[in-house]
Each structure stands twice: as structure tokens, then as C-alpha cells.
């Protein structure tokens, strides 16, 4: 049996924009994709990055020390910088509906520091295939878990996803979400964090 056929993780196509698209608005990963995956697999296999439960049974996290140039992609909102915030309607893919977002333009704020950790977000193969089918895409990968997002941050635990992401998930797979209903407590936690912070694009 080949090593590829026994691997537990792979890079999902949804995640590749973080490596390949210079206009991507979240964490940009300036690192060779194959080496990145090998490092994540090695960290997990060595017991240094166990699977951590996410917001739904099909979602897991791995937390690893940051070995890339990725910087912390958000800032606290202060009276001094809140006038720099910008808003627009944006969609992550061509199939999704645009939603209202806000951010700090990268050229208007001090360069953020290199992040201390990477939050590796994984979806189960079953969930990835369900979402791909709902959006009219095919999924030919076979690994049990796909890395769907990488978040650079300064803590080794999950930060709240943005409220609009929770809303999109609740809309269902046909609109680019996961189909997980809103949980009021988790939504309020998200609001409490993101009303005080904004991403840097």
C-alpha cells in the first residue's frame, strides 16, 4: 500500500487559494504546499498536534507552531484606528453569495508580527463531498480529512469564527455553508470577539 493511500490528511482545493492567490483576504501561506502538508502530517504523527474537536463532528483542528512567514491577520479596533476600517460585499468563491465584510487595509496599518501558531482546520471527507455535491463540484480526493483552512494566530486554541461565517453555515451547503445551525451562545462569543477586532486585508 502506498504512503499516499494511507495518509490521513490532504490539502483541500478550497485551501489552495491561501497559497496561490495574492489577493486572498485571510492568512496567506508563503510556503511550498507539499512541504507544508508533510510538516503537518509529521507533527500529528509525532503526537505534537493531536486532533481537537471543532464546531461540529465533521470539523477538527490541529495547532502547530508557525513555521511559515504568515502574520497575525487581525488587529484590535481602537479609537485611533477605527477610522481606517473599510467595508464591502464579498464572496469567497464564485458560487457563494456576497456578504458584508469589514477590514483594515494592509497598507494603512503597521505590519503585523509573525504569528506564533497555525490553526489547521480540517473537514471530514464525507462533509467535503456533501458540500461539493451541493455546489455542483466533484471531489476526487480520498484522505479521511481535508485541510480546508489555515489561520495564523498567537494562541494554540480555536478563536471564534466570524459571525457572518456562522450565518453562512446556517444557510446550508447550497449557499457555501456547512449546514450547521446557529448556536446562540457561540454566536454571541463570536460577536464579542469580532466587534473588538477586524481582519487585515
UniProtKB/TrEMBL annotation:
Q: Which Gene3D superfamilies match?
A: Protein of unknown function (DUF3228), domain 1 (3.30.2310.50)
Known Pfam families for this protein? Answer: DUF3228
Q: Which superkingdom? A: Eukaryota
Protein name listed in UniProt: Flagellar associated protein
Lineage of the source organism?
A: Eukaryota, Haptista, Haptophyta, Prymnesiophyceae, Isochrysidales
Amino acid at each position: 500500500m502506498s504512503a499516499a493511500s494511507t495518509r490521513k490528511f490532504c490539502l483541500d482545493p478550497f485551501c489552495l487559494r491561501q497559497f496561490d492567490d495574492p489577493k486572498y483576504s485571510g492568512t496567506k501561506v508563503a510556503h511550498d504546499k507539499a512541504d507544508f502538508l508533510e510538516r503537518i502530517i509529521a507533527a500529528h504523527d509525532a503526537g505534537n498536534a493531536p486532533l481537537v474537536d471543532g464546531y461540529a463532528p465533521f470539523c477538527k483542528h490541529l495547532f502547530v507552531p508557525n513555521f511559515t512567514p504568515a502574520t497575525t491577520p487581525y488587529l484590535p479596533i481602537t479609537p485611533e484606528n477605527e477610522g481606517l476600517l473599510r467595508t464591502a460585499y464579498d464572496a469567497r468563491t464564485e458560487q457563494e453569495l456576497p456578504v458584508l465584510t469589514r477590514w483594515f487595509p494592509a497598507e494603512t496599518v503597521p505590519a503585523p508580527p509573525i504569528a506564533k501558531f497555525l490553526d489547521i482546520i480540517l473537514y471530514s471527507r464525507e462533509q467535503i463531498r456533501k458540500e461539493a455535491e451541493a455546489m455542483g463540484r466533484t471531489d476526487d480526493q480520498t484522505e479521511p480529512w481535508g485541510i480546508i483552512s489555515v489561520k495564523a494566530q498567537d494562541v494554540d486554541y480555536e478563536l471564534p469564527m466570524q459571525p457572518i461565517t456562522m450565518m453562512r453555515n446556517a444557510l446550508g451547503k447550497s449557499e457555501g455553508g456547512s449546514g450547521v445551525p446557529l448556536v446562540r451562545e457561540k454566536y454571541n462569543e463570536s460577536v464579542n470577539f469580532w466587534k473588538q477586532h477586524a481582519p487585515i486585508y
